[in-house]
Amino acid sequence: MFSVFIARYALFYNHLKNIEESEGGLGKFTESYKTFGVNQLADGGIYCKEWAPGAEAVFLAGDFNGWNPFSHPYKKLEYGKWELFIPPEDGHSPVPHGSKLKVVIRAQNGALLYRISPWARYVVRDEDKVNYDWVHWNPPQSYIHKNPSPKRLKSLRIYESHVGIASPEGKVASYKNFTYNVLPRIKDLGYNCVQLMAIMEHAYYASFGYQVTSFFAASSRYGTPDDLKEMIDVAHSMGITVLLDVVHSHASKNSEDGLNQFDGTDSCFFHSGYRGNHQLWDSRLFDYANWEVLRFLLSNLRMWIEDYRFDGFRFDGVTSMLYHHHGIGTGFSGDYNEYFGLHVDEDALCYLMLANHMIKTLHPECITIAEDVSGMPALCRPVAEGGGGFDYRLAMAIPDKWIQIIKELKDEDWNMGNIVHTLTNRRYEEKYIAYAESHDQALVGDKTLAFRLMDAEMYTNMSVLMPLTPVIDRGIQLHKMIRLITHALGGESYLNFMGNEFGHPEWLDFPRIGNNESYHYARRQFNLTEDDLLRYKFLNAFDRDMNKLEERFGWLASPPAYVSEKHESNKVIAFERAGLIFIFNFHPYQSYVDYRVGIETPGKYKILLDSDAGEYGGHQRLDHNTEYFSEEYPHNYRPNSIMNTSSQPPRRCHMHQVKVYIPSRVALVLHNTDIPK
């Protein structure tokens, strides 16, 4: 096994050495976004460069030359590259800002192909057109960032977001709306990081941003590039880290406004033939062994960091990249034979190592996250160890486990040991991002946790003016408990998809032919939390206070929890992390008086967070003035245990009756008041 990591590092090192020797260094190689495409020079001239190895000739056409396809030919260079210099006109750019352009490719069969440059920074689609147009973006004054990026966070609390649906209105929302209406909400909820989906331009809105057509262009359906820069700048002013959901695992099959067949051939950026097509996603697959593909993808990452000031990336579809089978029809049991062998795409893995090395070298404050369902070992270990170099990986088994439990088991059959195992089963010294649900569970065809728990009653019984039905009561209590135990036990970071924090009703469905192009489900009804007569406010308040508590005590940045109890018949889970005691009673109807809980650190404990509190839609069965005193009574392999009393500490003796009250379907967080924080 160790020889595999040595071989992987050797492949990475050889690529890096070749780049250093042939391109003048990794820094210069990955700055290619400043020379490829169409770029403004200081003297007002325009420099254009493309890689089109299958082209017979290349031209630039557009508004600036009356769409003459032959008046501005590119000069052919080595290795399939082409360049064009257009001198300034009276000190001004010959290609005005806002004018439309196309790269004209003469294919090997003689056909003229009108293409958007793979490096285009801005593309738009007119309402009466199907395809996108490339628009030259060179405003007289670009947005100037005013605020520095936040320092690297120890505890990541991520708010997964989609700009277009971030409004209660049935329309495509804007960067401006997100800046001034959503960012303050994220800050108030206690999230310190926003992960933005569907930013890289994608022609098909309903693809959720995962069928990218223009990799260097910020989606124009939400506004201009400067609007996005302002949004990120304002987030930084609030201390919010901003991550981009980057899609380098595949690309849209579009050719008129995408990368596919850019130079008239089946390959160029992609593998040719069967290997270049993803059978499930109906998309093209990059050739990660190709020198110019590495230039393109690495430069793409650097552009998003340096031009827009993104603070890192969540790499989508990493499992598809890592294996030649792309994870299709393959289950992963954890057997090491699944991760080493000819079925692993070592070129793709090498690209990921290069990407993380580049990011950590040039921008060490940036964060990278891998979306990998397979559990590839060492993906989040340093590149120097032969690892993938990522900072975090998504704990993708956790949401699947919650769905399986809720769908298949009665409440009294929930297995505490299985829940704890799923939440704590992670690779040693690799950081995981825990989440109870993400955008995947919100999409049409699936159900959010809230919808699974409460279903149709969410339409009729979420008003406080209506009696609290058993279904709504159960849903509200379990929704809070599931999120807290996932947050506190499941990893070294936490993620929530926008709206799910308050149990957003219904599903997420983008306008498409199948729903008559409706925007009714392509929105987030944040207004529900602001209606004092609706119970959504309870879940929203709990989520906020849960995050604020983590901000105060930092359990995500603390060592993994010590689980002292997972009692099957009692349905109780208890653990310690960051000096706090977490107690969960999942029993549907059994409350416990005199329940003993084992602890490590002696002292006086009080309630910090109580899911049964009235402000969270609970039944207010606990007195928050209660003090819990430890005693030297070993329990569940802990040297001490706790009891409660109204005012006086217990007498010093070796054994006392423990009197901890744990109501049914309640989660408690206790802290030691003898330890200053």
Structural overview:
With 677 residues, the protein is of the alpha/beta class. 24% of the residues lie in helices and 20% in strands. The protein contains 13 helices and 29 strands. The strands form six sheets. The protein has an eight-stranded parallel barrel with strand order 10-11-14-17-18-19-20-21, surrounded by four helices. An eight-stranded antiparallel sheet has the order 22-23-24-29-26-27-28-25. Helix 5 (291-306) runs parallel beside helix 7 and helix 12 (470-489) runs parallel beside helix 13. Keywords: Glycogen biosynthesis, Glycosyltransferase, Phosphoprotein, Transferase. Belongs to the glycosyl hydrolase 13 family. GlgB subfamily.
What form results from the Cα inertia axes?
globular
Strand content: 15-25%
Q: What topology, given as strand order, has the largest sheet?
A: 10-11-14-17-18-19-20-21
- The residue ranges in which pLDDT falls below 50 over 5 or more consecutive positions are 644-658
Structural category is: alpha/beta
Largest β-sheet summary: 8 strands, parallel, barrel
How many H/I helical runs?
13
- Distance between the first and last residues' Cα: 44 Å
Kindly provide the radius of gyration, computed on alpha-carbon positions and rounded to a whole number of angstroms: 28 Å
Write the layout of secondary structure elements.
Layout: H1 2-23, H2 26-29, E1 37-40, E2 46-51, E3 57-62, E4 75-76, E5 81-86, E6 100-106, E7 112-115, E8 123-124, E9 133-135, E10 156-162, H3 175-188, E11 193-197, E12 200-201, E13 214-218, H4 225-237, E14 241-246, E15 277-278, E16 283-284, H5 291-306, E17 312-315, H6 318-322, H7 346-362, E18 367-370, E19 392-394, H8 397-408, H9 416-424, E20 431-434, H10 439-442, H11 449-454, H12 470-489, E21 493-497, H13 536-553, E22 562-567, E23 572-577, E24 580-585, E25 597-599, E26 604-610, E27 627-631, E28 640-645, E29 666-672
Parallel strand pairs: 10-11, 10-21, 11-14, 14-17, 17-18, 18-19, 19-20, 20-21
Antiparallel strand pairs: 1-2, 2-5, 3-6, 4-5, 6-7, 6-9, 8-9, 12-13, 15-16, 22-23, 23-24, 24-29, 25-28, 26-27, 26-29, 27-28
Protein name: 1,4-alpha-glucan-branching enzyme
GO molecular function, one term: cation binding
Function: Glycogen-branching enzyme participates in the glycogen biosynthetic process along with glycogenin and glycogen synthase. Generates alpha-1,6-glucosidic branches from alpha-1,4-linked glucose chains, to increase solubility of the glycogen polymer.
